[in-house]
Amino acid sequence: MSRSERLTLFKGTLNDGEEALKTEHLAGAGGLEIATRRTDLIDVILRELFIRQATTLKGDIANSLTLIATGGYGRGLLNPFSDIDLLFLHSDKMKTLDPSVQEMVEGVLYTLWDLGLKVGHATRSIKGCLDLALEDFETLSSFIESRIIHGDGALYEQFLSRVRSTCIDSREDAYLNNRIEDLHNRHERALGTIYVQEPNIKTGVGGLRDYHNILWMSFVKLKQRGVTGLIKAGLITKASYKEMEAAHDFLHRVRNDLHYEENRARDVLTLFLQGVVATHFGYPQRSILRRCEAFMRDYYHHTRRMREITSQVMEGFQIESEHRKSTGIISFLARRRPSMEKFDEFNSIGDRMFAESPTIFTEDPLRMMRAFQHSQLRHLRFSPALKDQFATDRELIDRAFRYNKTNRETFLAILSRRGDVARALRQMHRVGFIGAYMPEFGALDCLVQHEFFHRYTADEHTLRCIEELDHLSEPKNDEQRSFSELFNELDDPAVLYLAMILHDTGRAENARYHEDASALLASKVCSRFQIKGARRRLLIFLVDHHLSFWKTATTKNLEDPNTIADFAQLVRDPIHLKYLYLFTYADSKGTSSESWNGWKASLMSQLYKLTLRYFLDQPEFERQLAIVDTELEAAVAKRLPASYAEEVRAHFEFMPRRYLQTRKDTTIAQHIRVFRKFFEKLQSDDDSALAPACLWQARPDQGCSKLLIASWNRENLLARIVGCLSALNLNILSADIFTRGDNLALDVFRVCTTNLEPVTNKRTLKEFDKLMHQVFCGTSYNLADLVKLGESRQLRRKQDLPEFPQRVLVSNRVDPKTTFVEIQALDRLALLGDIFTVFEEMNIVVHHSRIN
To answer: Is the pLDDT of residue 339 over 50?
Structure first.
């Protein structure tokens, strides 16, 4: 049979097999079943291919080469587009690779490549493998899960034996430490939680790599393949084993679907693919959002159990290792034994907390709540056995337990220890306690949030917000220090922490406005916890208005005194203001890393300070904002040379009232200087007379630069300016537009780089001036050309664009003098330019804009 005929035969076998597997997957076959059967399919092809190619070898050489599967292929689990990792193993007697062997190996590989398979490969002696495994634990892991496909079985057994004796024996603890470090680093890169919006099913927290870790550790520590030996070793229960295998199968099924859908290897479960997988898996909900929600809840439940069980196993291996070291004579002489303490039928060894007996909770159910207080006060973490005890006795958390006065007081005492609350609540969440004790919060368990600025599930978001509050107790940077004094002055931190726990509970109610539903649930909790009077009003206020501070700061004109007065009426008093300010900071920081920056910080700080001024002296606040024009005009005139007198008079005559009400004399004087610069350009003889005058001011404290532009008010003025900024890939954060009565315009932009930093690069500023000259002084203007220029400067990144709900809200109720337009759309270059163009074509004057 010729090579082309053999290739046709192998292609037919592979294609028929792959098609059958895809059909069975779509019919609902399990993830492990498909991955195992695909391994079998590749085994058949490889074994036959290897045998056929080996016929070209002669004598001893024909028996000196063994084909071994490593990596995922070695585990016997191949997803549809997974790599096929191969090791062509030969004995140490073959000092140099025989040319015929090299030719045979290449024949196998070329055929596999021609079949469209992605192959990782190496040809090595046993000694060569051992040298690599001694240098790199990752390589050692791939050898641990290897298996023979065809060749000399005795050579393979010798290989395994020498791997153990040379690379594993006496190095078990070093390997364990490497696996623990790998686990920590991977989890840190995945933001330390399973509850991310777009998880990686292989390397993310609770993903397949966590399972692989305990596979490898079982081989190293227990000298067994597979994970069933963990039951006999007492590291997991039979029930935990079943849960872990169910999670393992589910993850493989999801991974299979991603591969089939994308027609390539894929591990990131994007927002778009979540809907695809949920539909393929037959989730019955009518709405795509509800299908996604149900599917992702299952996903998070499985990965949570995977993380909990695999972490428990790794911790068990670590405890065994520490115990073995501490009982050795040298270790005993060299170090102290871990400190031990007994309390309330618990005991602690080192930083771990253990139960004295398996009946401690049935004997006294209230001890469950006290366990968290003991853990908080002594800075302990629960042992694996104690975690299992909570799972076993969870039914003890009934209605009587929730209404018990002692439990309530203990829980609020835990919330009162500012700076150390998140750790206790995370421990409650991990063992399922907090959701059982507070069903309102329990309903958020693994709940997907459909807003695109939320990176985490609702429960994880809440816990991260509480961590942000904790950080304020002992601040580590200037930003935290700016809030720390307020936080440490609070009379009742427990109310702030409890409000944070409850602020998103309404999301599980599927209400149109989740804050209203959350406030109703908070009221029920207040009744159950016997929280009354001013304390109750404060808690419900924080929950009900937890979005108000952020919305006001980022969407309204803070230089309008009516904005401050309206917000002050909503907040009621300075105490509510301080609590809400802290709450909004932690809520924003806990949403995602992109939800907080210097610009938003400056907006919130401005709103807080202006509202506090309003409360401290309302008459003086109103007097300063309503300062008589003549007084302000005189103050501006003093800051400018006498030659500016006519320009000052014109500025005050023609500028709109809203501008004069909200600008300081120093700011107005600066604006008049920019207009002087524009007038000087008008008198020049060259064509630059038509270009606006510009002034850049870097504001590092706000993470942006202020751009002042003075010009004639002309057609598409705003769109042209925005086009020039877009061409340089600069982000626009806000725009304030003032048109004078003499047809002059003052535009105040706040812009930043893509790294959310001020624009300070001299080359960028020079290019901006050049573009402005071309746009305003040329014969024609084309926004599309500027967009192309901006696109050419962008980094080429392939990204999955989500299905984003685009919408426009138009309201005449937000502000008494203007129409409020809110536009939600997927960001792109010159989006704002297109919007301004439409407004100008409709003769609509834009006064103020904010861009998030």
So the answer is: yes
